[in-house]
C-alpha cells in the first residue's frame, strides 16, 4: 500500500543510528513489526494463570537431566 506520511526526522535518524537500518521505509516497517509483536505479547501475558495445565513439572525437569 502506498501512502504519504510526515515523519519526525529526528526520530527517524535516531532509529537509524540505533538499528543500523539504512532507509526510512525499512525503519517504518521495523517499527510496525515491533509494535505488532509487543501488542501480541501483551495479549499473551493477559492469559497468564487463565489456561489449565495438566502435567508434572518435576518429571519434565528430570527429563532434561542427563544421567551418567
Helix content: 55-70%
Cα distance, first to last residue? 59 Å
User: Proportion of β residues?
Assistant: under 5%
- Which word captures the global form? elongated
Q: What low-confidence regions span 5 or more consecutive residues with pLDDT below 50? A: none
- Kindly state the mean pLDDT as a whole number? 91
Largest sheet: none
**Got a strand count?**
0
Q: How large is the radius of gyration?
A: 21 Å
Going by helix content, strand content and strand pairing, the class is mainly alpha
Secondary-structure element series: HHH
What's the helix count? Answer: 3
Report on the structure:
By secondary structure, this protein is mainly alpha-helical. Helix content is 59%, strand content 0%. The protein contains three helices and no strands. The N and C termini lie far apart (59 Å).
Task: Lay out the secondary structure.
Blueprint: H1 9-19, H2 24-45, H3 57-63
